[in-house]
Amino acid sequence: MRNFDFAPLHRSTIGFDQIANLMDRVLTNDVAQPTYPPYNIEKLADDAYRITIAVAGFSDADLSVEVREKSLIVSARKADEDSTKSYLHRGIATRAFERRFHLADHVQVIGAVHSDGMLHIDLERQVPEALKPRQIQIAGSTKSVGKDVVDAKPVN
Question: Which residues form the domain of 115?
C-alpha cells in the first residue's frame, strides 16, 4: 500500500484539511472496518440518497439517529435482555453498535423510518440559491451603428 504525504496540501491551501483527513482515513488500512450491521447506500435522484441499515431485533426505542459536526451517527443499544433465556444457537446479533457516515456540504437528513427490521434514512443535498449556477442574460444593443459613422450632437 502506498503512503501519501499531504504536507504540501497543508502548506498551500486553507480550509481543505477535511479532504486531507478524509484521504488519510480512507488510505489507512491499519484500522479494521466494522462490518456490523450491514448497510446499503442508494442514490435515488441527483440530489437524493437513502441509507438502509439492517437492524433486526432492535426496536425504535433502541435506535438513535443523530447529526453532529457533518457526521450522521446511527447507534443502537439493546435494553438488558432477560438472562433466564437459554439459547441452543444464537445467530441473530443484537449487540450494540455505532456507525458513522461523513456528510458532504449541504447534505441534510430528511427523515428516518424503521420497518421490517430495516432502518431507512433519507438524505437530500440542498444547495442554497446563492451557490447554484445561474444563467446571465446577455442584452443585445438596441441601435446598430455603422463602422465609420459617429453619433455626435451639434455644438451650437
Answer: 37-80+90-127
CB 51 within 8 Å of CB 123: yes
> Do 48 and 121 lie in a common domain?
yes
8 part of a folded domain: yes
pLDDT per residue as tens, the chain (156 positions): 566 666 665 566 666 666 767 777 666 665 566 778 899 999 999 889 999 999 988 889 999 999 998 889 999 988 766 667 788 888 877 788 999 998 888 899 999 999 998 999 999 998 888 877 888 888 887 665 555 666 667 776
Asked whether residue 106 falls in the same domain as residue 65, the answer is yes
- 0.85 cut: is pTM over it? no
CA neighbor of 122 nearest in space, from 108, 136, 106: 108
- For 109, half-sphere exposure in the C-beta direction (CA atoms, 13 angstrom radius) is 19
The reply to whether 28 falls in a domain is yes
